[in-house]
Every structure is written in C-alpha cells, then in structure tokens.
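Dear Dr. L.,

I hope this message finds you well. Following up on our conversation about the binding site, I have prepared a predicted three-dimensional model of the protein together with pyridoxal-5'-phosphate. For your records, I am including the exact sequence and ligand specification that went into the calculation, followed by the structure tokens. Please feel free to forward this to your student if that is useful.
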Amino acid sequence: MIMTRTIEDIREDFPILSRKIKGKDLVYLDNGATTQKPLQVIRAVEEFYRNENSNIHRGVHTLSQEATTKYEKARELTRDFIGAKNSNEIIFTKGTTDSINLLANSFAKQFLKKGDEVIVSAMEHHSNIVPWQMVCEERGANLKVLPINKKGELLIEELESLISPNTKIIAVNHISNTLGTINPIERIISIAHKHNVKVLIDAAQSIAHTPINVQELDVDFLAFSGHKMFAPTGVGVLYGKEELLNELPPYQGGGDMIKEVTFEKTTYNCLPHKFEAGTPNIVGGIGLGEAIKYIRSVGFETIEHQEKELLEYATQELLTIEGLRIIGTAEHKTSVISFVFDDVHPFDVGTIIDQLGIAVRTGHHCTQPLMQFFEIPGTIRASFAFYNTKEEVDKLVNGVNRALRMLR
Ligand code: PLP
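The resulting structure of the complex is given below.
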C-alpha cells in the first residue's frame, strides 16, 4: 500500500516520543492505557487557553460565542467520525467510564425492573461490569455473563440461549483491552435486535484503531474515551440513537441540562444538553475535534496496515522468548499482546524494562474476572499504536530477555 508519510515523519508529530527515560530512548508500548498527543492537539489546547478561554452556551459576549462555536464544531466532527445521524446524539462525557455510568443509571431508571437481565461478556473492563452490577443490585435485576474460550474469544453461539424475555440490554466491548480480541459486534447486535434487546458497545479500545459507523452497525449506544484516541484526558463520548436518548431520564442535575426551574418542578433541556449538566471539559472537547482531524489526516488505512504489521512481527518475535505464553490468541486480534511466564511475576519484568526506557503495563488491566478465568495474577501487556516501530519491538524483546536473565 502507498503511505503518504513515513512513520519516522509521523513520529515527529508526537514530541514525547523523542523523550529519554533513564537515559534511554522512550519506547512507549502502553497505548491501550492512553495514547500520546500530537502537536496539533497540544497546540489547540494551548491556543484555547491563550486566546479563546471562556465558558460556553450561556454567554452573549464574543469569547463565549467563539468558544461555543468551537466546542459544537467538535461535536459535529465527532458525529461525522462515527457516522451518527444527528449531532444531538453525541453526548460529551468525561470518558468511557463516565459514559457507561451515565447510560447504566439512566437506562436502569427507565427500563430495568426486578427480575430483568443485563448481559455483559467475560472479557469486559471493570467499567463495563461494575456500573451494570450496581444498577442491577439497586433494581433487583440480574447480571448474566457471556463466556469465552481459552483463546479469548466470545462463545457467541451461546448468546441466543442466554437471552430471555427479561433481557433488556447487552453491553460488550468491541476490542478487549487485555486480550486484543476483536469481537463480532455486528453479529451480537443482530442477535440482540432479533430479540428486541438493546446493545451498548464499549469502543474504548477500537475507536483509534478501526473505522466505526454507528448507523451501519445499527448499534443503540456506543462509548469511548478521547485520551485513547490522541485527545486530552477527561473527555469522552456516549453515542445513543436519538429516539432512545429522548426516552431516557437525565443522569445528573445542574446548569445547562434544564429548560425551566422552579421550586415546584424542573423541565429538562433538549438533547444533547439534557445529559451534560454543568460546565463541561471545553478544551477537552476541542482537543477531541483536533484528534479526529489528525486521525483522518493519517488515515485508517495507514493505521490498520501499520498496526497489523506490528502485531504480526511482535507476536513472532516475543514467541522466541523461552517460557513466554501469550494470553489472548483469538483469530481476530488487534495490536495488543498480553504475555506471562510461569516462573516470573509480570510486575518484576515491567519494573526492570522500565530501566531501559520501555513502558508496558503490568497487572490485571481492570479485568480481574479475566485473570480469574486464566488463573493468572496478571500479564505484561504491550499495546501498540501506528507510531510504534519494529525497532521498538526488538527493544522490547531484548529488554524482556535481559529481565529474565536477571530474574531467573
Ligand atoms: N473499556 C475498555 C475496554 C478500556 O480499555 C478502558 C480503559 O482502559 C475503559 C473501558 C475505561 O476507559 P476510561 O478509563 O478512559 O474511562
């Protein structure tokens, strides 16, 4: 395929990638936790605070109107990015966790009663388990779990029998942050809709890696975080179909979400403001808009091509390490590799390779039920972005080998 810019050239957009850590070149392989920020995003944040800072939606003065226009432009960019019908369907939140908490609470109030059911999968991040568990407990509803196999793939053929007339919503991730598994969300949505069950897709790990079109998917709700797609922290999105969001009650009360307030009764604002109480993360939203423009300038074709190469190369090279076992060997995988050793603790490997400038994540990755399933305390996880290189994979492999020589 033809790439318009080389990876070396693209890396120049990310100033942090030329940092030294303990005297060594930074090798940043923790993109699943958060991605680095390109200059385009950093400059937009700086520009806002230097020249444009003002609160939005309520001001008649020029600064406020400019800030409002920019923030709403970011909402429109987000709408277009995920192929939503209407920008009213884009609710800005603090991130995926906030989006799921908003939906779980609001959905439960409207639709969950005693004996109802919510289905999640066995490979969910805690943020797509705990909010549902909490509202199920409150409502006397039941949380059911779609199991997985030892490769880390959903047992999709069991979904239909798990659904009952009491099932109200299925909440699953698109891509597992621990295993890298790409889940068959089209199939899940079509099975769910056959039974009149709603679907939330947690797109935290997919949004920066593969194109998503909510209308083509016909998904009811979608959640993702800005910081995992090159935007600032503290901003994220809950997408919902307009007719469904209109049915849901507000999650939080406060400024901006109201139409009229008296001590007797409050009426609520229209979408999306009904779900956006209080001053939002204005600069975060604007930064998210810039990140979307940036992703588009690189292009998903380049991103997917580069990450596929990295996944293949890293898998092949890591498997040359004695005693290394990959957790998550699904047929459809993205560029996340979790691995373990029977005789060495993940934390020790992570700490030693940090001395070499290599940033990986170790631990349970907020997926404790998955750790219980695989009977392991945690994994070492390397998660790649398109700006990573094969040379960095080599450094990882050398670093892990060095750590093993010290630890064994
Ligand atoms: N869901 C998945 C699959 C994730 O990987 C993460 C974060 O790692 C989250 C949800 C939570 O995202 P955030 O911490 O940005 O709210």
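In brief: The first helix runs from residue 7 to 11.

With kind regards,
A. P.
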